Fold these 4 entries.
Entry 1:
Amino acid sequence: MNYEIRTYTLRPGTLPEVIKRFGDGYEHRRKHSELAAFWYTEIGPLNQIIHVWPYENAEERVKVRAATLMDPNWPPPIGEFLVDMNSEIFTPFPDAPQFEPGNHGPIYEMRSYILKAGSIPKMIKIWNGAIGPRAERSPVAAALYTDTGQLNKFVHIWPYSGLDSRAEIRQKAVADGVWPPSGGLDLLVSQENKIMLPAPFSPML
């Protein structure tokens, strides 16, 4: 399974209308393929929507997108509100969760790391050895690396019941010595995080 993560930056003040129009259009788009998740930013880079589309492979993505071009109800009429658009294709880490539908949040943290060139396999090995104890404190929703787009990018997404819960869980994981994974910091070039909330039609709430 591959995931296309599309990030759109919007004009300030237009988010409610964009979510409405996207939700209306998605009722038609979903007959071609379903969303994995749809979020908007609350903390971090503001005025962004992030939508995640799962595909079995590149061929399915091409087929589905070709079908949507014939659909008069898609894409939603949000072009007037867009400032920037970005699309990246991700491959999940082996054995990592993959965007399971359900009520997991409503707070989601997306952490994006740029790694040193060639270090994705080492990061996967480090994570496989450390994620168990960390996940006992709170589950990870997804861990992925880029196949197409900005290279050497590692994204992990964590759901929380609230910001206070997030702070408590993270502090305890550090205090207990189970997080961050040993050796991972040596592979990092840069880091970014976003706090996101789900749209009403998101499969992950």
Entry 2:
Amino acid sequence: MKIKTKSGFECNINERRLNDWRYIKAAAKMNEAIKNQDESKAAEVLTFAVPFLLGEDGETALMSFIEDDDGVVDTVKLVAEYIEITQIAGEKAKKSQSSSSS
């Protein structure tokens, strides 16, 4: 599925990965980290979730998209993009499931 965030980042996600148990566990940990404002835990989850969901090429593209003029990838921007990507992917997956069950 093709995703485009408000900031303009575009990527492709294998919809099956959204239902992979390892990813579901990571998403639950991310939600907990966000709820508890635990930046360390969020960063830990991202090291698995981003490459798993986007693939190596997608992760590289995201890092290039986010990095500033000094080559720094701001973690806050990364988390924001990741959250938006997963929200869009979830919405598209629900639409896909509901249209296929009709």
Entry 3:
Amino acid sequence: MDKNTKWLAITGAVVVAVVIVGVAVMAGRKHNTDDSKINPGKSSDMSNMDTSGSDSSGSSSSDSGASTSSPAATNSVEIKDFAFSPANITVKVGDTVTWTNKDSAAHTVTADSGSSDGPNSGNLAQGDTYSFKFTKAATYIYHCAIHPSMQGSVTVTE
């Protein structure tokens, strides 16, 4: 086999692998959305999340696109299938939320505002956890800095 043929074969294999991974990721996202309908206590559907923006404090600046269902009352968020689950939670001031990465890919928990009063985990490998204590009432919109389509929110109440 000459060098050009080897190069073509390697390039073709890489393209096929990228397509397969892309299809698997999209299937996982579809699966998450369907799971929230099958398991009513599980809220992984991000279509009802307010992503309209946030001010410098990390609180939401708009009610447009507000959720039609209330956020889950929990202090734990799993990162799996390239999604935060549940995507939207509510806690009280002083509560600590813990995120656990159950994916084989690295993820982050990064406040959209970039402010110091929101979560900022850095890279989390599979099995890693990150905890953040919320000290101010607000809605904190966050995402994965590696995979920006992954989004979630923590509503902190008095």
Entry 4:
Amino acid sequence: MRIWPMRATLAAVTLLVAAALAGCGSPPGPQRIEITIHYSHFDPAQLSVPIGVPITFVLVNQDPIEHEWLLGDDAFHDRHRTGTEPHHAGRPTEVSIPALATVETTITFDAPAEWQYICHLPRHEAYGMLGTLRIN
């Protein structure tokens, strides 16, 4: 019995299987992105996230006042600029963040888009409390 050709064949098959599995690639796992609020500004103010991956946004409010993080398209923000909701809860794209607190929200995006995150408390958006999220 010739062992060398059998070992070579086994090694070749193992390499082919490993290469095939590496090429398949599994989808990326959940991601965590920290957004810091300081002096009524979001940092970072520009983000990019992938489609189909759960993203946990960790919202760290370093200010001694409450803020909100509202994420959506132009129509969404037009509705919120009137300030009809004093507090946001239960919707992952609408988050109230108490003073000096950290809040987390998790979102999985299913389509490409470019949305903004804005604090619509009085004068906060005009002061520059907004950012852009690209979903691709």
